[in-house]
Design goal:
Strand content: 25-35%
Keywords: Lipoprotein, Signal
Protein name: Outer-membrane lipoprotein carrier protein
Distance between the termini: 24 Å
Oligomer: single chain
Order of helices and strands: HHEEEEEEHHEEEEEH
Helix content: 10-25%
Structural class: alpha+beta
Pfam family, one: LolA
Largest sheet: 11 strands, antiparallel
Radius of gyration: 20 Å
InterPro entries: LolA/LolB/LppX (IPR029046), OM_lipoprot_carrier_LolA-like (IPR004564), TAT_signal (IPR006311)
Length: 300
C-alpha cells in the first residue's frame, strides 16, 4: 500500500494487522523516525494510488543546488536570527579553545583546536564524502538497541536496512523518504526536507551556516559538536555529532526531537568512496513507470 501517512505518535509508526502486537524492532524504528521527523501529523508526498492517475510525487529525485562551502570562520559572515557565526559557536563563557579531556592524544588531535577550526574540519569531512557504507546500532531513549546496515550516496540518497527479525527499510531517493515494511508490504512516505540529517544528505554543508552551532566540546577520546535544526517538522531538533580526536571518523550522532525524545545511532566499519549501486535508493511511488523500473531492478 503506497502513500498512506500515519500519525507519528508514541506507539508504533505503522498500523499492524488486527490482533498483531508491534514487535520491539518496529517500535525502535518508530523511535528513530520520531527523532528524524518529530511527532506531528504532516502531509506526505502523495503519489497516485492507481497507475493511470497522474503522479503527484516527483517523477525523479531532484538534485539540490550545490552551495559553495564557506570558511567556518569568516569576518564577513553575518549571523541570522538565532544563528551564530562559526567563530562564536561555543557559548560566550566557554574557553577560546576546546579544553582537552582524558588521556593525552596524538599531535594531530583536534582537541586543542579553535572552535572555527573544528567546524572547518567537520565540514571537510562531510563535503569530502561522496558515498558511505557501514554498520549502525540504533539506541532508543529507553535503551533498546537494534542494528543494521547504512548506505549513503550524496546528494540525498540514504538507506537503513535493519537486521532480522525486523522487516523494516528506510530509503531516501533524494526527494522523499520511504519507510517500508517488507512483511506487511506497506510503504509510508515523507518529505526529505523534514529530516534533520542535512549533514549527511546535502551535497555541500556548512554546519555554521545551515544549522545553528550551540556548543563544541570534548568527550573522552573525541570531539562533540552540538547543533540545532529549526527547520524540521514539529519544531527544533537538537543534534550532537561525535568524532574521534583527529576528526577522521564520525562515530555516532544523537538526535533529540522537538518533543524531547532522543535517538542515538552508533557507527562502525565505515567505508568512504566505495562504489554503490544506485538502484538501492529506488522508491516505487505506484506509477506505471515505477512498477516497470522495479521489475527491471528485480530482474538484474
Amino acid at each position: 500500500m503506497t502513500g498512506r501517512r500515519h500519525l507519528l505518535a508514541a506507539g508504533s509508526l505503522l498500523v499492524l494487522a488486527a490482533g498483531l502486537q508491534p514487535a520491539p524492532a518496529s517500535a525502535q524504528v518508530s523511535s528513530f523516525l520520531d527523532g528524524l521527523f518529530g511527532r506531528k501529523e504532516q502531509p506526505a508526498p502523495a503519489p497516485a494510488p492507481e497507475p493511470e492517475a497522474p503522479p503527484a510525487a516527483p517523477a525523479a529525485p531532484k538534485k539540490p543546488a550545490a552551495q559553495a562551502p564557506k570558511p567556518a570562520k569568516a569576518a564577513s559572515d553575518k549571523p541570522g536570527p538565532g544563528a551564530k557565526p562559526a567563530a562564536k559557536a561555543a557559548p560566550s563563557d566557554a574557553p577560546a579553545k576546546v579544553a582537552a579531556v582524558g588521556a593525552p592524544t596524538a599531535a594531530s588531535s583536534m582537541l586543542d583546536a579553535e572552535p572555527a577550526a573544528v567546524l572547518a574540519q567537520a565540514n571537510a569531512y562531510f563535503n569530502g564524502m561522496t558515498t558511505l557504507s557501514g554498520n549502525f546500532v540504533q539506541i532508543a531513549g529507553d535503551g533498546r538497541r537494534i542494528g543494521g546496515k547504512l548506505t549513503l550516496a550524496k546528494p540525498g540518497r540514504l538507506r537503513f536496512d535493519y537486521d532480522q527479525p525486523s522487516p523494516m527499510e528506510v530509503v531516501a531517493d533524494g526527494t522523499s523518504v520511504a519507510v517500508k515494511d517488507r512483511k506487511l508490504k506497506t510503504q509510508d512516505l515523507y518529505f526529505i526536507s523534514q529530516t534533520p540529517l542535512k549533514f549527511l544528505l546535502r551535497d555541500k554543508i556548512d554546519l555554521a551556516r545551515d544549522l545553528t552551532v550551540s556548543d563544541i566540546a570534548n568527550d573522552p577520546g573525541g570531539i562533540r559538536i552540538s547543533l540545532e535544526d529549526r527547520a524540521t517538522l514539529g519544531g527544533t531538533s537538537k543534534i550532537q555529532l561525535f568524532f574521534d580526536a583527529e576528526m577522521k571518523t564520525l562515530s555516532q550522532w544523537r538526535i533529540t526531537d522537538p518533543q524531547g525524545y532522543q535517538t542515538t545511532v552508533q557507527l562502525s566499519n565505515l567505508q568512504k568512496g566505495k562504489a554503490i549501486d544506485g538502484s538501492q535508493f529506488f522508491i516505487n511511488y505506484g506509477r506505471s513507470e515505477d512498477k516497470a523500473m522495479e521489475k527491471q531492478i528485480k530482474a538484474q
